[in-house]
């Protein structure tokens, strides 16, 4: 079964074949879509055929839905191509690449204020994204909790995690795949992140950790990890538990250290035991790299670490997959080396400035309500004032005409009556693009206003056929006569069905 279906054959009207465009200079017969061709074709034909089809994809730089990096310097692109044939799993064969990963882990750990001395090695691993990083961190919490419960002679079959309802779908995946109950703090209007007070109230002896989000997918807001730490420490002291905190800093981990250095959210807080971050978001690397860092070696149970030697030497490994490319690890180290603290700070400041210009432009239009916060991820989430849900989706569709991809979605339970549009500001979305986007947004809104103010009516006629007494050339004509006996005007409002569950996100 194919899980992802974007379009069907009946919609494309081209049966089961791909019709070449400019590749017709190389091939004369249609190419099958879903079966392997019987014969080979030239490299030019294969390239041109795929190239032509990919032209119908959206432009990555106009995809304002995604947090994922879409631009890197040519020098880094060159390094990526030089390392694209290296399998990172072969650590003994590629020791320098392994060393670059270890350097990245240590750089990130110190950026997050891990208690690592100058000559000590930090505990962490590179992953294919924050989804895998969260799976690994969750498994570590589950195993550590189970070990403690077994030692105390208590049941260990009903672990749970407390989160906000605003968490990304990968948390739901972890809970389902690894049999952990997900206890979600519901949102409410005007408060779209996890409430630390309510979260701590939901903690019980089976809670393996509380997951806080540094940069909510819904509106970019940072959750109050410091308050969560204080409240949880009080409850732990009262109950004798040692419930820890994991910080999902997929989006905000490469923002807070540079823009909000005084904000306490990381390993400065004693209950924070692990942190994940996406290198392919504001770490400024193309898709395919994430990181998870543990506070101490004791927070990563040894039984989860596998040791292999059939690639040439003893190699500890803790990943969900085995083989993976080396390019993104190399690219991450390039960015750390190339930009340094100063460069990352400037990039993040520029992103926040673009977000500010966008926010002010939306306010000037007067028809939008901003629901994102200024302290958080550089994105702008907004809703249409006093309008119906469907208008946000219509505006999203209108913007696609100009090439912009802007997601429209409803908030989770208890705030599902609010429909939001979200623009993620990345490094490549500078001021000129912001101004162009605002002009296209105004055009899109004007078209919606016209559609709302002057709805297109549907007129329903009731027609009866009556005998005709018309005479043509002296003869009676037996053609029935159509007579309109009634008419009714109906205004059509198209409702867009919404699918319940997590809104999609890229990790």
TrEMBL record:
Task: List the cofactors.
Answer: pyridoxal 5'-phosphate
Give the main EC class.
Answer: lyase
The UniProt keywords, alphabetically, are:
Decarboxylase, Lyase, Pyridoxal phosphate
What is the official name of this protein in its record?
Glutamate decarboxylase
* Assigned EC number: 4.1.1.15
Q: Which GO terms describe its molecular function?
A: glutamate decarboxylase activity; pyridoxal phosphate binding
Q: Catalysed reaction per UniProt?
A: L-glutamate + H(+) = 4-aminobutanoate + CO2
Single Gene Ontology BP annotation: L-glutamate catabolic process
Modification type N6-(pyridoxal phosphate)lysine: residues: 281
Superkingdom as given in the UniProt entry? Eukaryota
**Which protein family is it in?**
Belongs to the group II decarboxylase family.
**Cellular component GO terms, alphabetical:** cytosol
Membrane-spanning segments? none
SUPFAM superfamilies the UniProt entry points to: PLP-dependent transferases (SSF53383)
UniProt cross-references to InterPro entries, sorted A to Z: Glutamate_decarboxylase, PyrdxlP-dep_de-COase, PyrdxlP-dep_Trfase, PyrdxlP-dep_Trfase_major
